[in-house]
Amino acid sequence: MDNLMSEGLNLMVFGMGFVFVFLTLLVFATGFMSKLIAKVAPEAPPQPAKPNPAVVAPTASGGDELVAVMTAAVHQFRKG
């Protein structure tokens, strides 16, 4: 029984040690790749946001129709 317990503890220590070493290497490898990619392909400057015509508030020219379509869609969705 004592031999079986020591083998179990030995296996547990080696297994947890292997996982710890692997995860540590993975963290360093990921950091290294991140720095490498940042040097090779730097991020493009952000583009100014263009207003999306579908998101703009309804105007007097087509607003009533848009509100009617949206209301019908909501009622259809709530019906199931």
Q: Would you summarize the structure shown here?
A:
The protein has 2 helices and no strands.
State the main characteristics.
80 residues; elongated; 70% helix; mainly alpha
Element-level helix/strand string = HH
User: Any low-confidence stretches, pLDDT <50, length ≥5?
Assistant: none
Largest sheet: none
Average the pLDDT over all residues and give the rounded result: 85
Separation of termini? 64 Å
Binned strand content: under 5%
- Note the overall shape: elongated
Count the E strands.
Answer: 0
| SS summary, helix count | 2
Computed CA radius of gyration, to the nearest angstrom: 30 Å
In terms of quaternary structure, the protein is single chain
Main structural class: mainly alpha
Instruction: Tell me roughly what share of residues is in helical segments.
Output: over 70%
Describe the structure.
This protein has 80 residues and is mainly alpha-helical. The protein has a domain at 1-42. Helix content is 70%, strand content 0%. The protein is built from 2 helices and no strands. The protein starts with a helix and ends with a helix. The mean pLDDT is 85. It is an enzyme of class 7 (translocase). Catalyzes the decarboxylation of oxaloacetate coupled to Na(+) translocation.
